[in-house]
Amino acid sequence: MSEHNQYQERWRDNIYTIPNLVSILRLGAVPIFVWLLIGEERPLAAAILLSILGATDWVDGWIARTFNQESELGKVLDPTADRIMFLVAVFTMMIDGSVSLWFAILTLIREGIVAVAALILGALGARALTVTWVGKTSSFGLMFAFPLFLFSASVAGTQSIVYEILAYAIGIPSLALHYFAAFGYIPLAKAALKEEREEML
Description:
Helix 4 runs antiparallel to helix 5 (about 100-125). This protein has helices at about 5-10, 20-40, 45-65, 70-95, 100-125, 135-155, 160-200. It has seven helices and no strands.
């Protein structure tokens, strides 16, 4: 095995990577978001924090790919942190009234279905599915849209309307793409289950 491949293998088994640290910090910031929005009623501060958390999702992936810090833990931790952060943020905003009920419910249904499917696959022993480009893109779009809803709730007048229009302009196509991405995971899930069955034979 070459030195480069040995380096990559070492990182795959290493839990102490910068991307994993970023994912853990992202999880730790979720209660702060809830406290800011519900406890302190500060939608602007919550919007800024949610924007930062959404950006770090891209940052930790970039670090992992650029510096060969992809790890087995990271493959599970990163999407798990994303899903928890996203579900809590949407549910909290729905309670707060910062986002339209129909938009929040459609988002939560999609995330719930994918989360349950991932748990079933894990229980059946199938490997974790790699997040697709379509899934990442749609998630990234929604992580732009929801802070915009919060920005809309934190200001008044024309600014509020502009932020809300931008939120829907980005959010509706992203949500549609999000559902499309969910259907795209079906053949990947079938392949993962088939692979697990073949390994058991």
